[in-house]
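Retro notes
What went well: the complex prediction finally ran end to end.
Inputs used:
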Amino acid sequence: MIWLFASALLFAIGTYGALTRRTAILVFLSVELMLNAAALALIGFAQLMGSLDAQVVVLFIIAIAAAEVAVGLGLIVAIFRRRETTSVDELRQLRG
Amino acid sequence: MQETIFLPLIIALPLLGFVVLGLFGKHFKEPVAGWLASSLVLGSFLLGLYLLFQGGARWTLLDWLPGIPFSFNLDNLSGVMLLVVTGVGFLIHVWAIGYMHGDPGYSRFFSYFNLFIAAMLVLVLGDSLPVVFIGWEGVGLASYLLIGFWYNQRVNADSARKAFIVNRIGDLGFLLAMGLLWKMFGTLSISELVQKVEAGGYNPAALTLAGLLLLIGAMGKSAQVPLMVWLPDAMAGPTPVSALIHAATMVTAGVYLLVRHAFMLHGDACLSGLIVVIGLITAIYGALASLGQWDIKRIVAYTTLSQLGFMFVAVGVGAYWVAIFHIVTHAFFKALMFMTSGSVIHALGGEQDVRQMGGMRKYLPSTHIHGVVATLASGGLIPLAGFWSKDAILAYSFAYGPLLWALMMIASVLAALYSVRWYVLVFWGDYRGKEHPHESPPVMLWPNHILMVGAAGAGFMGLPYVIDYQNFLNPFLTPAIGDFALEKLPVLTEWILIIVSAVVAAVTLWWGFGFYQQKAPPWLERFQVWALEGFYADALFNTILVNPARSLAGVLLDADRGILAGFTGLGSLVGGLGRLLASLQTGALRLYMVGLMIALVLLLGWGVLR
Amino acid sequence: MIHMGLWLPLLAGLVLLLFPSLGRGFAVASAAASLVIWLVLFVGYDGGVAYYSQTPFLPELGVYYSVGLDGSGLLLWFAVSLVVLLGVWIADVPVRFLALSLIMQTGLLGIFAAQDLVLFYVFFEATLIPALLMLWFFGGPDRLRAIYTFALFTLVGSLPMLAAIFAVRYLGGAESFLFTDLAANPLTGPAATLAFLGFLLALAVKTPLFPLHAWLPGFHQQNHPSGLADAMGTLYKVGIFAFFKWAIPLMPEGFQQWQGLLLFLAAFGALYAAWVAFSAPDWKTLLAYAGVSHLGMGALGLFSGNMEGTVGALYLLGASMIYGSAMFLFVGLVYKRTGSLELMPVRGLARHTPALYVLGMFLLMAMIGLPGLSGFPGELMVLLGAYQVSPWLTFVTFVSVVAAAAYALTAFQKLFQETPPRPASDAAQASAVLDLNWREWGFAALTVGVLLLMGLYPKLFTVYLEPLGRAIAALFGGGA
């Protein structure tokens, strides 16, 4: 049960960070926190149900998250090189 | 009644002429084409006569369309019509050999002429309504082609088009009548319809409607008020066309159609009354309008209208055989009148205005005699053909109602007047034109001689019963039309009517002969201005029908572009919605994030609270 | 044989695309071979769905390559084969254009022969490709807009039909998409109403039924003036056939829900289009609207749901494909001589070209339903059928017969009989207008022969159409 509270806390922190930070890196970091909160919640529920299946899924998540971080950071670096900034408030070219 | 392949052969002969002359017309020297066409029509005449003596004939092709046979039927009624069409048709063909001399479209003319004869025979002989309709539209086509024969002048082409379109209005009635009869009886074969109508078991109101629709068809073809506007304009065609199509045969097709369907009409007081009224109006309208014309052919055209009105009255009062009788006599004297006019036009090198004529009795002696007989027959002088058929119509009108008789007397007085007016303006007085007149060649005179004999003597086949108790025509036609006994007038009444009618006609002719040689009084000139325009019927139709329809067509074309624009508008509606949604796409990442969170909270809240 | 007839034109078309040097002769040979194959099939026809064959194509999904010809297929194969032959014979166009026509022929033949609904849909859509290519490569200056409209109408219309196709099979509970299976398990209830609407949207575009005819005038105006593409487009108006073959038998209940509206649209469209045609500024617009009017009349017959109406609709469809297409090709001949399609008085063309005048007269008279020519038998049967269902709508529809005479004769008179108010300055050119050459004579003879044959002896086809009409009538409890 405690794991679920921890997960919720982690998710809340991540949300707060994602909403308040302006730097892309920090937003990205916060999103990672939220992702891990989700993984933690998964394990917490699995614990409650006495099943190990979720562990496998979480291992997958971790592996894919690693790959995703690589791509994400790569993109941020590329954007920084081009635009000299990583502030998400300034990077608004994708509006409709 | 025998099934014989000779029956379609009657039609095939002139059709062959149409095809041969149409395809290879260029290779025929001038008179050859004319004689070929004429002899084919004569062949049809003789073959038809032979088959009629055999007691009639039938020919059937089953299931031409599902449930509809392709059938011809030669009985006494269609036989009489066949003889008129091919007989008078042959004479007019021969006459045209002379009249069309030197025309660049000589072969084309006879090709169309044969097409007309073939189509008219299909109309007359057809036993299945769709077959009749083939002929019905076929004669319309031939008429269209021939009115517009000299199509290089726009007015001729316009007249041809007008004739076709007005006729089509009538055809619409014919088509709908077929639809209704098929729905009621499940057959379109006339001989089967006769039996089914006799058997009963249908809604009489529906039968009245069917008769009304057929009547509309007949009105179009026979140029009855209000569908008469095309006939005077149809005179734009060559004169033989006017004589054959627009006087002797095609325009009587409507009357023939009604007589053929007498089994549907008789005993229907409402419908008969309508036919009488239409016929009466047409008879008087045509006569009055004729009195104001100056074009010789338009004079005769309006007299044709008037005579067609007489035939309609005959149908309306139930004297079906009399209608056919009048068709026969009218074919003779009206063809004669037209061809006499044509001979005069020919003699004057194409002049058609009677104000440029006059005094022709000195220049054209033979034609003058034709003119006299035509005038007297048309004006109803005893004992020429026109008198007997008109008298029969008057007598049956009296039996229908004395008021009708009185009105019809007025019409026949007018008929005598217009005949004599035509005669005086053309043949009497002094010659007012410049061209030097010359008498027609024999090839144009001989047909007129024969027609003259007919116009004088054809009446004796249908004498009133007080003179000839069983005349020839009435019992001859009865088996084909159906035996609808008509009340015979008392002998004394009948005699009085005959005498009144004969005296009135003679007096009118005599008075008119004097009157039209004098200068016209002013009231007459005022009247003639009106009559010249046909009492502005054309202008009226143009104002209330043609022009609005034409303008509406333009409006509709624009409206149709509007429909496409409407669909395009539907497309831009989707585009607009897209743009609206795209404006939510601000590019501000953290705004999206807030939206995401709010949605998450809402979804979770909904999931928990549900 | 039927497979050869079906695929030969595609093959010939592809060969011609690869080797354009083969020229027109090759295209004509292929088209003539198609017509001969049709003749063999016609002579050997023995009623029912003949030459039936079925091969599993996607058996798991119940899709078969299944073709066969019934009476209607036979008539329409004739129309298609004949028109393609006339078109490749007469039209002065690049060889690639001819190749596209041949390719399109296979699509059209497939539409009429398919006995499997998915196969039908494939042909129905695939035929669009060559039609669009013709417009794209050989169209007029404003063609982009026409393509856009045409493609959007047809594609957007087809998608609901695709959905409805699956609905018909899976909700109806049929084993496969074969016609026999589907017809044995007709869709019922509200699902049928909706599924019929799906078909209706696609087929109304191709009928064309008011108001979804709006794409047609632009399509014709922008197509190549030779008229070949227009002729092929006329053949592509297969809506009536598809209603008859698929939509009505598979969803009779659905059809009955929509019948009232459909009858009204058909009748109104017939009169409306004829009226509009009267003020059409050029020949192609006129013919486009004339086509809408005739097929509206045909649709009225079919939607009557009885034997007479169905026979009439199919016959009128076949006949109008032929005279409509031939009329477009005829206008192409006129264009070749006058350089214009506008409906203006052109120096009394009849004097210079009497043979062209006669050909035009025949086509025109067939078009306005003169008895004795091919338009009339269909119109008459439609009348007899429709009158039983709704006399008033029949009246409205057949007023267009009067209107047809008005627009057709007026246009004809301007073309052939009237001379322009001011004598044309190019008098020398006027005297150089030539009458038909031998190739055009061939075209004229074949066309007129078929018009007469179909007008005077409709029994040739109607004996095979009658059982089909009775089958439709039987769906609605009409005579057996």
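What we learned: Chains C and A do not touch (no CB pair under 8 Å).
What to try next: split runs per interface for comparison.
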